[in-house]
Amino acid sequence: MKNIAVIGAGTMGNGIAHTFAQYGFHVMLIDISEKALQSGLATIARNLDRMVEKGTLTEDRKQQTLDNISTHTDLQKGTGGAGLVVEAATENLELKLDIFKKLDKLCAPQTILATNTSSISITKIASATRRPGQVIGMHFMNPVPIMKLVEIIRGYSTSDETTKTVVALAEKLDKIPVEVNDYPGFVANRILMPMINESIETLYNGVAGVKAIDTVMKLGMAHPMGPLQLADFIGLDVCLSILHVMYDGFKNPKYAPCPLLVNMVTAGKLGIKSGEGFYDYTTGKKAEKVAEMFS
Ligand SMILES: NC(=O)c1ccc[n+]([C@@H]2O[C@H](COP(=O)([O-])OP(=O)(O)OC[C@H]3O[C@@H](n4cnc5c(N)ncnc54)[C@H](O)[C@@H]3O)[C@@H](O)[C@H]2O)c1
After folding, report:
1. Which residues does the annotation mark as catalytic?
2. Nearest residue CA, atom 28 of ligand 1?
3. Binding residue per annotation — 201?
4. What does the similarity note say (predicted)?
5. Fewer CB within 10 Å, N side or C side of the chain?
6. pLDDT, tens digit (0-9, with 9 covering 90-100), for 65-104
7. DSSP letter assigned to residue 114
């Protein structure tokens, strides 16, 4: 398999395109927005430059990586000849169902359709296609070129063959794939989000302040960053939406989002992307520093 289509050139899509291209795949990066494609390409070039500066990539390999990527706003042209499509468009059920319905019509019968969704059911997404055996979750972590884990999520009907192919592809990218089943939150967010929610609840109950909570978790549990800072990094709106998926999916009050999280999202305090969350990022430098803690 040489040709990979990636749908969505945002945070995750450009990282996924970067990684496949760096490992020699031909990547068709697709977005509805030409501006998003240009900004995605600029991010890839910047991240490759950083790797060259750090000595982890040669200038030649950087150029080959960029040459391996083409950009498209047309889904049909962008997916032509793709053996695998990785969808990393906006987290919205209706949008993803629509994309998969179209992909099912446009792509060759053998093409595998993967989604990078953080929380939407793979089985539900697969139901929009006539090839549920070839639909799978390929959940990369942010930032994709750095993080080793790929959570491979098997929908109810995902075939062994599809799983084997996708696991082998993840390994070719020098990643560590871990197979999990399709239940709300999968594994990563099912464990991470209740921890983040509980840390917000701890703050809300006045047990300790933001810095104290994060310091306990950093120094006491050897986490690279505290849960409140991590929530700012992920986006408080994203955390809230994943908690809603788990709450709705399990009907268990333990996943109910903390009222403070709900209030902050309503007030537009979304973390790094809005400039303020549990921390203040109004100077661009601070936000960059937090992002660098992950690289
Ligand atoms: N951000 C994270 O840390 C993270 C981590 C793991 C998984 N995810 C998942 O990855 C996916 C993408 O998240 P993101 O953070 O990169 O989002 P983003 O908002 O940064 O990017 C989404 C991109 O999708 C494009 N898009 C929207 N509709 C489209 C369509 N019909 N066709 C093509 N492109 C379209 C948008 O123009 C945008 O450029 C989501 O499903 C999200 O849950 C995100």
Report:
1. 118, 139, 151, 189
2. 89
3. no
4. Belongs to the 3-hydroxyacyl-CoA dehydrogenase family.
5. C
6. 999 999 999 999 999 999 999 999 998 999 999 999 999 9
7. E
Strand partners, 69: 27
Q: How many helices (H) and strands (E) does the chain have?
A: 13, 8
Is residue 86 in contact with ligand 1, taking CB distance under 6 Å?
Answer: no
The C-alpha atoms of residue 252 and residue 82 are separated, in whole angstroms, by 40
Q: What amino acid is encoded at 37 in this protein? A: L
What secondary structure letter does DSSP report for 152? E
Q: What's this model's pTM, rounded to 2 decimal places?
A: 0.92
**Whose alpha carbon is nearest atom 15 of ligand 1?**
11
CA–CA separation, 287 vs 282, rounded Å? 8
- Tokens describing residue 15: 């990282």
**Ligand 1 centre and the CA of 92: distance in Å?**
9
Q: What share of the chain is helix, strand, coil (3-state, %, to 5)?
A: 55, 15, 30
Which residues are 140's β-sheet partners?
A: 150
Q: What is the DSSP letter of 143?
A: S
Domains in the chain, start-ordered, CATH in brackets? 3-181 (3.40.50.720), 190-288 (1.10.1040.10)
Residue 81 assigned as binding residue: no
